[in-house]
Structure of J domain-containing protein:
Amino acid sequence: MSKSVGSSMFSGRFISSFSVLIPTASSNSNVARRKSWLLLVQFNNYASSVKNKSQTGSRRCWKCNSEIRSGVEFFCPSCNIIQMPPRKVTYFELMGSPTSFDIDTRQLTQRYKELQWKLHPDKFSDLSKKEQSLSEEQSSLVNEAYQTLLKPLTRGLYLLNLNGIPITEDEASSTDTKFLALVMDKYEEISSSEKKLKEIKKENNGDLEKSVKKVSKAFERGDLETARKEVVKLKYFSKIDEFIKDREGWD
């Protein structure tokens, strides 16, 4: 008996204590049998709870200690108290979106509005300090996730980060020289001619659209190296767009 239990993942002090109390075939001690049975029940309960926790990523409510099985639960299903921000949950999981470059931004916005309606700090102003603090943390996290996933550039950068491919400033500035030369020409053109801003803006919008499609196809193929290169270019086109808006006096 002790050998079969010892082969499991729980082979520490629980096993050794359990083995000692297992009654032998010749033992008629009811006390020993009862002790061994109780310890077996305790061990099975412990093993089951650890197994479930490792499989579901469950956690405990800080208020009532009830189990929260889902990693993206914002409130305890038992006492309905707001919880601490979930750990090891991606922005995609948090916002109920697939882990993909191509997402439905309308659904994303709807999810954002629903969560902010539930989590906004104003709704917790009459509650405890801890609940107020947690609402601020949760609301801030949801806002950060939404802003990151809403735009193609930040979504692409985040996806690359999830795959262990962050883009540094040095890397962004070391892209191919021909492309950088075109970017510099574009900046000079914007700076020197206000009359051509509409034309330049239209052209850059087309470049942005093409760039987003290239990034999308690269991620769809699982070609992260190409995705990285195209996201760098998308970053430059986005910067040009911001520069045009500044020149036009937009916010």
